[in-house]
Design brief:
With about 350 residues, the protein is α/β, with parallel strands linked by helices. It contains 12 helices and 13 strands. The chain is about 35% helix and about 20% strand. The relative contact order is 0.16.
Length: about 350
């Protein structure tokens, strides 16, 4: 197979930043994806439907050449999120979920949830209104090893949450471990997960083995090879619980290379091409459309996209750097080759 045509995919986990940074990166995603779940961790965070709709307008204003791109907005869950905001989300057609960041877990998460007990009443109401919860699934306790934070989150937070509020729709975002794959696979159909291209392609050696590579630093952090293999098996399996979410997160090279290094990997400039390369290597191109274009839409109750894209088996070079609001951004696989190339939209 040298040409691959897919229903245009959706990205169910995307960071776009704001202002001139937003303008620098939005086109990369809009070219490859019809819709994207937009993360709310701006500074200050997007905590109301009004703020989300204003942010959505700023995104669309950056994309005059991609008028069909549909940003699916989210709100940042805090200890003080009111029930009224859940009602507003449930009643708008442009805001789709709340994002749960444990306070201090990642970039711009300082306003996140400090104790899940403080938000249980709101989560119960979200279940009643069928508003999804998107989880950054890590604990932040200092005594927990950074490589174990996802596993411990599942044990301490997610398992009890699912048991206590079994009607809540939950996406465990950017899963990184065999433990997460097993949990999601064995849970009800109210539980799903997204998987990033970088967690499919890299294990922790890529960040640590030949000197520290800050451009491979992300949160949740890269894990052992056995975990990467479990993610690849889940993504390529056709299981409807797993779907595409790039977690593409742009930072300038300076922010990545000076301490403390910002967490995040920018992959939007080659995202669907990289996924295709992973599926190709597993002889599973026949399940790529399921993972990229169907599973997430089904979970969110969205119609399938009518547009299509085509990829061609052709090696091309990912840019060494990208302009990022006048600064330099180093993308994922910078300067490396990719075996599939986006060639057409229909």
């Amino acid at each position: 197979m040298d040409t691959l045509t897919l229903i245009k995919p959706d990205d169910f986990h995307l960071h776009l930043r704001d202002g001139s940074e937003l303008a620098s990166v939005a086109r990369d995603s809009a070219r490859r994806f019809a819709r994207a779940i937009i993360m709310p961790n701006l500074a200050p965070p997007v905590v109301s439907v009004r703020q989300a709709l204003e942010y959505r307008r700023r995104i669309l204003d950056c994309l005059p050449d991609n008028p069909d791109f549909n940003p699916l907005m989210t709100l940042y869950l805090t200890d003080n999120t009111p029930r009224d905001e859940v009602d507003r989300v449930a009643e708008t057609g442009e805001v789709y979920a709340f994002k749960y960041y444990p306070a201090g877990a990642t970039t711009h998460s300082a306003s996140g949830v400090t104790d899940i007990g403080k938000v249980m009443p709101v989560l119960e109401y979200m279940a009643q209104r069928d508003v999804p919860l998107l989880l950054h699934g890590e604990v932040t306790d200092a005594e927990v090893d950074i490589f174990d934070r996802e596993k411990v989150f599942i044990e301490r937070i997610l398992s009890p949450l699912v048991e206590n509020i079994n009607a809540l729709r939950i996406v465990l975002e950017h899963v990184t471990t065999r433990d997460a794959v097993q949990f999601v696979s064995g849970a009800s159909d109210r539980i799903a997960a997204t998987i990033t291209p970088h967690h499919l392609m890299l294990n922790r050696n890529a960040m640590l083995a030949e000197g520290i590579n800050p451009h491979h630093y992300c949160l949740p952090i890269l894990k052992r090879e056995r975990h990467r293999q479990a993610l690849v098996a889940a993504a390529t399996s056709g299981n409807p619980k797993f779907f595409l979410g790039t977690d593409s997160a742009p930072h300038s090279a300076r922010a990545k290379e000076k301490p403390p290094c910002c967490a995040g990997i920018y992959n939007a400039c080659a995202a669907i091409e990289l996924y295709a390369s992973v599926f190709d290597a597993m002889d599973s191109l026949d399940t790529l459309e399921q993972f990229a274009s169907r599973n997430g839409a089904r979970f969110y109750g969205l119609p399938l996209n009518t547009q299509k894209i085509s990829l061609r088996r052709e090696e091309w070079q990912i840019p060494d750097v990208i302009n990022f609001a006048g600064a330099t951004l180093v993308p994922f696989r910078a300067g490396g080759s990719c075996r599939w190339k986006l060639v057409d939209e229909h």
